[in-house]
Design goal:
With 60 residues, the chain is mainly alpha-helical. The protein is 90% helix and 0% strand. The protein contains three helices and no strands. This is DUF1127 domain-containing protein.
Length: 60
């Protein structure tokens, strides 16, 4: 494993995280009615539940 491959993996993860957060910001800027129509609140809640479950499993 070279230093360049490690930097490449870090850069790829960073770019993906930025894109995900940008998408969330754009969706959260939409009116609530439109977000409900496309199902964004349910998707967002499901991700939070999954994160909470993962965190709980790691703590125990």
């Amino acid at each position: 494993m070279s230093v360049l491959s490690s930097i490449g993996r870090i850069a790829t993860r960073y770019a993906a995280a930025r894109a995900r957060h940008r998408s969330e910001r754009i969706l959260l800027s939409l009116p609530a009615e439109l977000r409900k129509d496309i199902g964004f609140p349910e998707i967002f809640d499901a991700q939070d539940r999954r994160r909470a479950t993962t965190f709980t499993a790691k703590v125990i």
